[in-house]
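Sequence only, no structure available. Ideas?
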Amino acid sequence: MMQPATLVNRALLLVFALAAVAFVAYIKPFSPSAPKEAPGQTLRMVSPSEAAGIIDSVPDTVILDLRTPLEFDQGHIPDARLLDYNKDDFWKRLASLDRDKPYVIYCATQGRSFQTFEKMAALGFAKVWLLQGGFYAWRNAGLPIAH
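Reply:
I predicted one. Tokens follow.
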């Protein structure tokens, strides 16, 4: 027969284990998924190496850097175009872009670029690839950086 103290210890251990599982599930990193594609649309979240391959192989790809001018000046993907997310007219400027061109978009870590990715999908941009992890992931992958 089990001692009462042993039962209490096992019950406490079970409670702590369940709390740990719940905590890990709660803090699990948020991993957004790509918006649903309309017919004729390509909307993908891609790794730095996949983005580099797209930039090299898809003609006329526009690389949009959504960071601030200061961030851009400290380093960016070669041939990237700055479109400062923090500017008052950002959404208007985004909406004025050619929707038929292919785009690779990024910011520092993927926060600003994910919101832009969703908006570009809703606006009907044909081909948009979001760089997962943003510029930091690109840099950490050892890919080329322009200054």
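The helical segments are 4-27, 48-57, 69-73, 90-95, 111-123, 134-140.
Hope that gets you unstuck.
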